[in-house]
TrEMBL record:
NCBIfam families: pseudouridine synthase (TIGR00093). InterPro entries: PsdUridine_s_RsuA/RluB/E/F_cat, PsdUridine_synth_cat_dom_sf, PsdUridine_synth_RsuA/RluA, PsdUridine_synth_RsuA/RluB/E/F, PsdUridine_synth_RsuA/RluB_CS, RsuA_PseudoU_synthase, S4_RNA-bd, S4_RNA-bd_sf. Its EC number is 5.4.99.-. It is an enzyme of class 5 (isomerase). Residues 2-59 form the RNA-binding S4 domain. One of its GO terms (biological process) is enzyme-directed rRNA pseudouridine synthesis. Signal peptide: none annotated. One of its GO terms (molecular function) is rRNA pseudouridine synthase activity. It comes from the Bacteria. This is Pseudouridine synthase.
Length: 251
């Protein structure tokens, strides 16, 4: 048995706090009965409705996906372009991406059906470190990278401290490879940061989220996360001493 708001969060209805608000507002029914008080517990056999729409309880699953370039970080697209869920034909749970990667950006992307887990990893105050490799136009100097590290203004707001490392520089072609580690997840953030210092991104790949890397995977491939990996992500995101209990992960 789990608390109703926790089940709603796992199913991706809303965060746990917003799920509690929905309950107290009289928007949730369990087995046809209106529930307005917190503390109600439900089992997998209970029928839950939110605003008259049934939600389905699934066992949580967690995947690490190597998103290829030219794929939408969504479960569907009205222009019929390729989306990330196209690469999971054998997965029957209703998974979705945790956050997003741009259409023309490749790299590591987490997929799950656990809404609470997704909210935790994408909440502004709980962002885990993410490492990107960018090929940029031009040859940035130390002071340019220092600006990235101390923060640049994008969309009217300064970015949080970052770590920038020059991996290589081609003077003749006027391009460079830079590794950038950030803890935020703002829209097009990495591209905008480089644009802010005058070095447009030509190619971008996300190589790491927290402790997770793409080792052993090719573009378009995925693997299921272990219970230990999921727990460690929770620790990374929230600073917990112990992770939440999860099920159906490989040992």
């Amino acid at each position: 048995m789990e608390r109703l708001q926790k089940v709603m969060a796992h199913c991706g209805v809303a965060s746990r706090r917003n799920s509690e608000k929905m309950i107290t507002e009289g928007r949730v029914k369990v087995n046809g009965q209106l529930v307005t008080e917190l503390g109600v517990k439900v089992s997998a056999s209970d029928a839950i409705e939110v605003d008259g729409v049934p939600i389905y309880q699934e066992e949580p699953v967690y995947f690490l996906f190597y998103k290829p370039k030219g794929v939408i970080s969504a479960v569907s697209d009205d222009r019929e372009r390729s989306v990330v869920t196209d690469y999971f034909p054998s997965v029957h749970e209703r998974i979705f991406p945790v956050g997003r990667l741009d259409f023309d950006t490749s790299g590591i992307l987490l997929m799950t059906n656990d809404g609470e887990f997704s909210n935790l990893l994408t909440h502004p105050s709980h962002e885990v470190p993410k490492i990107y490799i960018a090929k940029v136009k031009g040859n940035p100097l130390k002071e340019d990278l220092k600006a990235l590290e101390t923060g640049v203004e994008i969309d009217g707001r300064k970015t949080a401290p970052a770590v920038a490392k020059l991996k290589s520089s081609d003077i003749q072609k006027k391009t460079a490879i830079v590794e950038l580690t950030i803890h935020e997840g703002r829209n097009h953030q990495v591209k905008k940061m480089f644009e802010a210092i005058g070095f447009p991104v030509l190619k971008l790949k996300r190589e790491q989220i927290g402790h997770l890397t793409l080792t052993g995977l090719n573009p378009g491939e995925y693997r299921e996360l272990s219970k230990k990996e999921v727990s460690q992500l929770t620790v990374d995101a929230k600073g917990l001493k112990t992770g939440r209990r999860h099920t159906r992960q490989t040992k």
